[in-house]
């Protein structure tokens, strides 16, 4: 109590120590609401001075104002609040005052605040404003919650003694808006640097989204010189829509402008719409191309203008309502190579777009889909499906479809019928030569690639291909035969309507085939199928200390299918046509040509199919609980070993199809092993053609000829990494700059190490005069290791044993510097070969406070 007496020697009233709490109702005067205050040690009233003294964990609540400290004084005469710390028994100050109001939070050695004028003076203060912290000797606060700092420091480091700060003699802060300073300079590790300016402006965004400038980054490009990239402005129109307008500008000419719009409606939909336009200027490449006619200069793109549209729309699925979605990636053929952000994007040969609406009609088996789709290649070939309509009926029973009777369990009530129709209008700017469709000399065959523009629309539409495909599925149920066999018959029927049907006539003058085209064709196809399957179990009881039993599971399946010969003349799908007057030796003068696109296969099909799968597993005693001797678990030895083939009784020769053998298993719960192969049952002649003679020779233990095989083993050796569900933060894409393949997007320091690999060996055999056997081997390794809690290395490498080179490699080194971070990236091979060294502040608020040194595909000379 001696300390308390020294602090105040004129106490006129004392409340005993304890967690005291009082409420003073608002009287008439300057106090506009109830003041609530409490203290742990004591509360002393000085009635004549109208002063209240609070000691020990003192706290005051006045509207949206909160003040906590070891000692607080309330002066009702002058409307002032005074808060300071108090020394403990060792002389150390405790209970540093913390002041909170709508303008922010302040921690200081001394706080004086007038709750009438809402002005204050705070000494030796630390306050957080947005992502940043402000340290100042003295801070004054006005009624608008604006604060003014003297000898201030601005930093995003949350330590009491920050690693770095921006120092200024004067500083002004507007909550949820910005921090402004006079002349400032950057101080790192208490060492002043020459980096600074005459004034500073640092955004301090509110919790809600706000509009603001996007500061560009600078660099150097191999073809376009120095540049400023991704600078612009972000427009936060409201809580649902935001627009990011950015651009690049290059010292040697050229520019890039992009607009990204993000929209989101909770519980309804979200999406992003972006448009990018680029003027790529490369005078050096233009000059070099004019001097040379070879293709060695393709690495230097010429001057060109490109555009790219990106749109994604994802709805929230709701029962009974349609679903509209979109995924659009379309534009100029060379745009993505000039603006790649990843290896996969640069190497991707095609880009596809889809706009889809689909709906399932409630309480019915019907659903429908309407789609617009587009695909494009880097070679400038565009394919459109405008529109793609689909209507389907899920299989339902005959009783449900054609009668109102209730099922009674009779065998024929298992019959079900399903239906699907798909109508398409296909448009392409590539018109292939007519002869490419038939493989014989055709009169006036040509190849043509049209441009894509509004002027060409009529021509493109006219040369489109329209079709409607109907599919019927008739399932005749499933039946038990001799208790152990499942018998399942079915019938299928399909019919396709198309707008082209060909008629052929040999022209002896030109020695070519003339083609006439009509505007409609009807193609139909039907078949009957049946399958017989069963399951065979075999168990061997071991009764050992660990292994209790081994079980072998076999699932054989025999199927039969019949389809007529649609190549016969009565169906009208093929025409036997004379193709030459003087054929080559061994060739026929007549050829069977299809009269419609996607004609049913010619030849009678009377086929028996066979496949069998095997599964082997052990029943072992569990080691999880040694006390429970009757606890067992299953361990798979072989997940699947399958063999399949077919035999066509109607074929003239080569009736047995190639034999497929597949296997996969998981070893020690770590290694995944897969194997697949194909064997040919027939011999081949010196020209590589199959002859109707089996390879099988029991005396030589030769069953068939291996033509190709593939074996893969992969593993993830870190069980903690396999179980981790850590994912990168879900930031809005519109707020992220374009990713550099040498820079990390997210680094997880929680897992100390990871290591995974995959090894693949492939075998392929060629026959004939160019007979050869090819073996390909590749090894891929990737993982990470934490050298310390702050150092992390990640790596990836792929090695091609066939060519004896590293196909791909990437090494990343990360260092966590608390409020800073360092990353080193190195890609030693490929088009993206280069390195990057970056040291930058972590805070997104100071994302441009970085030091970078790099050599990449864009600036490597």
Protein described:
With 861 residues, the chain is mainly beta. Among the domains are: 2-203, Lipopolysaccharide (LPS) transport protein A like domain (lipopolysaccharide transport protein A fold, Sandwich), CATH 2.60.450.10; 487-655, no CATH class; 658-861, no CATH class. It is built from seven helices and 57 strands. The strands form seven sheets. The chain has a 30-stranded antiparallel sheet that branches. It has a 17-stranded antiparallel sheet that branches. The longest helix has 9 residues, at 283-291. The chain is elongated and about 120 Å long.
Detail the topology: elements first, then pairings.
Layout (H helix, E strand, L loop, with lengths): L1 H6 L5 E3 L4 E5 L10 E5 L2 E5 L4 E12 L2 E11 L4 E5 L1 E2 L5 E2 L3 E4 L2 E11 L4 E11 L2 E10 L5 E9 L8 E11 L3 E4 L2 E5 L2 E7 L2 E4 L8 E3 L2 E5 L3 E12 L4 E10 L4 E11 L3 E12 L2 H9 L12 E12 L7 E9 L3 H4 L4 H5 L2 E11 L5 E12 L4 E16 H5 L13 E13 L1 E2 L16 E2 L7 H6 L2 E11 L3 E3 L3 E14 L2 E7 L4 E7 L2 E13 L2 E6 L5 E17 L10 E5 L11 E5 L10 E17 L10 E17 L10 E9 L3 E10 L1 E3 L5 E5 L10 E12 L2 H5 L29 E14 L5 E15 L4 E10 L4 E13 L2 E8 L6 E8 L8 E6 L6
Antiparallel strand pairs: 1-4, 2-3, 3-5, 4-5, 5-6, 6-7, 6-10, 7-11, 8-9, 10-11, 11-12, 12-13, 13-14, 14-15, 15-16, 15-17, 16-19, 17-18, 20-22, 21-22, 22-23, 23-24, 24-25, 25-26, 26-27, 27-28, 28-29, 29-30, 30-31, 31-34, 32-33, 34-36, 35-36, 36-39, 37-38, 39-41, 40-41, 41-44, 42-43, 44-45, ...
Protein name: LPS-assembly protein LptD central domain-containing protein
InterPro entries: LptD (IPR050218), LptD_2 (IPR045659)
Pfam family, one: LptD_2
